[in-house]
## 1
Amino acid sequence: MARMKFICDAERCIECNGCVTACKNEHEVPWGVNRRRLVTVNDGKPGERSISVACMHCTDAPCMAVCPVDCFYKTEEGVVLHDKDLCIGCGYCFYACPFGAPQFPQAGAFGLRGKMDKCTFCAGGPEENNTEAEFKKYGRNRLAEGKLPVCAEMCSTKALLAGDGEVITSIYRQRVQRRGKGEEVWGWAMAYKTAAKTAPLGAKT
Amino acid sequence: MMARRIAFLVVSSLTLILVGCGEIDQTAKSEKVYAGKKDTRAEDGLAFGGDKKKWEAALAKRSATQNEYLRTDVKK
């Protein structure tokens, strides 16, 4: 059983914002909502690193734990999704999420919040697959088309990897072994309760 | 006098033990139940018609394209 995960390789990310743009375009995400965004540390200084951040689809997702209306669910592939028909836009998930993934469109005057929107791992939501209703609420369902998230597939340096955890860690491990550095996998210890470093090549994950 | 003391000790210790048995579990129940609509599985769309094996194969093929060491002819 595939367990869907993201890896962002800080050694490779060049802060091009290709993933952010691809995501916004693919799902026609409104202004003010960023399902994916780039975070840069030590900007303009030696040792500058950029990370592409979105929902990590955590193993033990804190958003699911705090939701007062229980609108979150997890698919068989481990993708954390939510039902927008139930969401009341309370914002609890935003405070609980360590990655700042939940986003809220401004629904009216005086900062009134709309229903929560976040990365769906390009897996849509609880509507019939690849329908107009699903697209309008959650964006395109690429997973149902046998495709991976567009952010990772569009990444020019392949800094962002998406897919089955075992497959992407083996790609990353191979990469680390070749370059001899950067084995830390950003966000994994937090999201998946795994080691923050990749295991040696050939080891079981 | 001694017998009364022993009886008192036995009764009080038994009471303490029994109080422990009657303690109500105060741990918060963390198991949340999804209250929304049921979602269709990824392979249940028009593209794969419920064929999970075919869907997994398509996804594995896509995943492999993320590894440039497989795409280019680089010696491992």
Note: The radius of gyration of chain A is 17 Å.
## 2
Amino acid sequence: MAGGIVIVLLILIAIFAPLIVSWLGHPPAEWHREKIDPAIQAPIGAFGGISWDYLFGVEPTTGRDLFSRILYGARISLLIAFFATLLCVVLGTVLGMIAGFFGGWIDTIISRAMDIFLAFPLLVFALALAGVIPDKAFGMSGDTLRISLLVFIIGFFNWPYIGRIIRGQTLSLREREFVDASRSLGARNHVILFKEILPNLIAPILVYSTLLIPSNILFEAALSFLGVGVRPPTPTWGGMLAEAVHNYDVAPNFMLFPGLAIFVTVLAFNLLGDGLRDAFDPKAR
Amino acid sequence: MLLFVVSIATFAIFFLVPRLAGMSADDLASRYVGKAANAQVIHDTAIRLGFNDPVIVQYGRFVKGIFTGVDRNYGPGVEHCPAPCLGYSYVTQNPVLPDILNRLPITLSLALGAAVVWVIFGVATGVVSALRRGSFFDRLSMGIALAGVSLPIFFTGIVSLAIFRDQLGLVGDVADWVPFSEDPLTWANNLILPWVTLAFLYAAGYARLTRAGMLETMSEDYIRTARAKGLAERVVVLKHGLRATLTPVLTMFGLDLGLLLGGAVLTESTFSLPGIGKYAVDAISNNDLPQVMGVTLIAAAFIILANLIVDLLYAVVDPRVRLA
């Protein structure tokens, strides 16, 4: 439950980030060189210059407000993770249901495809794909392009995890009496799939998509950390950590806050997912 | 089969995706000849690297190199690249395979060292937690494990570097790679931090998996039978309980180790270890197709190999598999 509350808070923070920043911070792309010690390019003041004016201190070199950058980073992180998870769930559910329900050669092809995806050097592959796309493509550019690209990559590579579970569940649901009953009443395949089987899959879909969100958040952070995420100056948590590698000694705040932001978010989703799983599956408790 | 699919997919990414996104052969070639080059030089490079050939021909050339080796015309002369030839880097002009093999010991040391730590700690914690379910130890270790699976290595890595290397000075500089054969002590001292950081994240997952498996196994009938036979509790837990739990743990281990051997990308980037993962990242940021093709193929080969070994180990761990 604690997980759920934290998640609701995080979503509210992400949605109202511009409002919160206008009260408590400074615009995320605004430079404040006067907060930087020119000799060592580090923030002036204790622990990265934390004060009432700059709640999390400032970034080294540029002096941008870390508090507002973390808040804006939450928008990118949650946006990508939600839509990527949605893509995973849609792909995984549809393909898993088709494979489990029809069996035969359809099942063979889809299952092989899942095996291949699962045995792929995923991160290297996602890196290659994210790195090779130019800055203008498919009629989009800038942040819109990068965000849709990341959603596509993360969603497209992670669907087999949920696909396998849905396939297994469909396999056993297919043999149940209510499916036979529906069929003998003359229902066609798509009716059976969507009206009879899908409602019974809601619980596992809910549990596993909640558990997929945190791993997708980590995936997005990893891609940003490796420099193929949403491009600067748009703030991302992974991107901030990548820069913090070089100057954490003079600005520990620059390393700690993005890391803690990732940790809290992922932990909250993991807690909620574990809780949901236990609620739906009394055996796991 | 899998290697074939991986090679096609990698190839498609590097040839078709840039084309779909609207880049020409000359645009691609211009990445490899420096900024000052004029249009003629760029065009010649595109022809020399074969960017104007049909996709099938380019892919055929790559596959041929792997099976029979290729001759490469580098200008002043012709060089032969023997059988498993993954081609030459567009940027450094070095053959790809030896470059990757040179970095293998680093990734191997990192992955195997960490694997030893995480399997021992993860499985032991999981077993003890399951046996003392609800105890203080169980709740504490499962809390830490949940935190462990929620932390990215590029955060814990930097934090541990800041504390143990910079503040306390307990470990050596990770980036200075020293082979085991030269100086085992320095080797271990430099690697201990990546080992522990990496192992912490994995151990968390293994502890959770082992605990869940043990809880299920220990309520099975055959455990009651074993106890009824009067076996010592130690034997019941280790020989009967743990053994059945190990099968899913082994499956996960095969996948994890295979993935890590193909390049611990994040760990190596965080600690600046010059292993295969760092090689992959550099190759990708240079847009160096032969290097990327080579490293993804090698990585996929490791995954396949690890899964094969795990399949064989099933028979050792689970007697039911041997009978089947």
Note: The two ends of chain B are 25 Å apart (CA to CA).
